[in-house]
Specification:
Strand content: 15-25%
CATH class of the largest domain: Alpha Beta
Distance between the termini: 46 Å
Radius of gyration: 20 Å
Number of strands: 9
Largest sheet: 6 strands, antiparallel
CATH topology of the largest domain: Beta-Lactamase
CATH architecture of the largest domain: 2-Layer Sandwich
Mean pLDDT: 89
Structural class: alpha+beta
Number of domains: 2
Shape: globular
Length: about 250
């Protein structure tokens, strides 16, 4: 596939993500300024998305807005992932009982990807959004996902991570030491690994749809998580128990 086609596909999705963040009609300049795209190619791409039916253009106001075709593309995903079962209500209950941000993640190649978040009302809340990816071997929920795999699977992933150009190369002993700590505790507590002052306490959930392993975490400012560590771990373990027997 040509490099230009790959770049265009990425840019088209990034444009749609801008609308997801702002949730209002946007002028061409607003979109291109935020993404840093050249006017000529950016304008052509926006016009292509209009022609394909993914964006609507208001000529009077000179603004763009996503069409319902965008909503229809993904309206089946949540049901496919979570169904009508107890998982989403359990995440909401966890959020209400801890008062912190709750994150659900799955493995996406060499990353842990956030697929559902419930944000806290704290002023210094976690700014991540669904789709955010974290390094599999260097994040709290990434280590949780690794801990559910066999040692042989972990080693294959470690070799791929090191070969991918990641600046933080890890030895087998280093990574397995961190994974085994998660296994022995039954949970991960990551502090300041991605963002200064921010941490996450996470556990693995029972196998989800299509045999996928989910990790759930409670994220927040490290001092708050430390103060509430026993409560949060207890809430997470209770949630796992309920889901296993639901």
């Amino acid at each position: 596939m040509a490099e230009g086609a790959v770049k265009s596909a990425r840019r088209a999705l990034e444009i749609l993500e801008v609308f997801s963040r702002h949730r209002r009609p946007l002028a061409l300049k607003e979109v291109l300024d935020e993404l840093g795209y050249p006017t000529s190619s950016g304008s052509a791409l926006m016009k292509s998305l209009v022609a394909l039916g993914y964006l609507d253009y208001d000529r009077e106001r000179r603004t763009y807005f996503p069409t319902m075709r965008i909503a229809a593309l993904g309206d089946w995903v949540q049901k496919a992932l979570f169904g009508d079962g107890p998982l989403l209500p359990a995440l909401q209950e966890l959020h209400e009982s801890t008062g912190e941000t709750v994150v659900l993640a799955v493995q996406s190649d060499l990353h842990a990807q956030y697929v559902h978040l419930i944000h806290s009302a704290e002023p210094l809340k976690i700014g991540a959004q669904p789709g955010t990816r974290r390094p599999l071997a260097r994040s709290g929920l990434g280590l949780v996902l690794l801990s559910a795999k066999s040692d042989a699977e972990i080693e294959r992933l470690r070799r791929r991570i090191n070969a991918s150009g990641d600046d933080n190369l890890q030895s087998r002993e280093e990574l397995m030491g961190r994974v085994n700590t998660v296994r022995s505790r039954g949970y991960a507590f990551s502090k300041n690994s991605i963002s200064a002052g921010v941490g996450i306490i996470g556990v693995a959930l029972p196998k989800g749809p299509f045999g996928r392993t989910f990790a759930v975490g409670v994220a927040g400012q490290v001092p708050r998580l430390e103060d509430k560590q026993d409560q949060i771990v207890g809430e997470l373990q209770a949630m796992v128990h309920r889901l296993e027997h639901s």
